[in-house]
Amino acid sequence: MSTLHTINKSPFSHSTLASCLQVCGKQDGILLLEDGVFGALASSPCAEELATIIETGVRVYALKGDVNARGLQEKIRAGILLTDYNGFVQLSIEHKCVQSWY
Amino acid sequence: MQLTVNGRTIELDKEGFLVNLDDWDADAANMIALNDQIHLTEAHWEIINLAREFYQTFQISPSMRALVKRTGQVLGAEKGRSIYLLQLFPVSPARFACKIAGLPKPANCL
Amino acid sequence: MNQTPSKKILFISRHAPYGTSLAKDALDAVLSSSAYDQQLSLLFMDDGVFQLLKNQASGEIAHKSFSSLLPVLPLYEINSIYVHYESLKKRQITINELVLDSVQIIDSSAICSLLAQQDQLLSF
Fold first, then answer.
1. Can you give the pTM of this predicted structure?
2. Residue A81 maps to which CATH number?
3. Count of structural domains within chain C
4. Mean pLDDT in chain B?
């Protein structure tokens, strides 16, 4: 595992998820948190690129608390893995570096 | 700490750097240098002017590494060496050169 | 003296100058870090590439100009400077508009491997 990318901004108003997807490697992971969880919606501007990258084997996580808080429980797309803060810590350890796209 | 130069009072911080950079002139430089027991010669002035030019160009006080490199570029390889600068400004050339040149303390001067 | 092995540290600067302090923070961080003899590199991407434009007369808005600040990097032995190709292209910036001539222009897939080589990433 190499880099864990964290996204905390909505892809509807920021380009951070798009930038991240450009340089994300197959061994990397992506964690959506705070407003970044809107990136997990099927209607997200980056939905296609995200689907493609999940197919190549990149694991994409969303922070469950942030998903639930925004009422997105039923709306997030298939293939997104839900995690919590303990999972966040675990992911930070598993990856060599963390790149925060803010 | 204060210095009085030609009837002007100049404010220095705890480490002897100018509080107001605009207070600097050649007389102030000589006096600050004397505080650190350095008598300024032509060779010192070459470096002081170079440090001031560095600051004007890059808007940052040079670290030791940068001062050595810049000295080499401008004054030639013979002078662009730590040992040369150490002879002029003992212990910590970047720090003393900047102080006398009326520049802020170099940020990464350890 | 105990020498700890040096680390590969990449500073990623992704924000435009002046609007926030992030661009200046990145530069200050990389210059300060140069005192510690680590393997430093610097990557400009997204709006961060705007920092590299020539002719920034930022005195008018009371800021230090990145056009004059960035050429200090080689004096601090920061010689691995990368610029994201797609970010330049999207903003229609050409190489001869850049204030540094020793940069390496790299594409997204090269950034992907650049990130993978690092021991530490610092994001600004």
1. 0.90
2. 3.40.1260.10
3. 1
4. 93
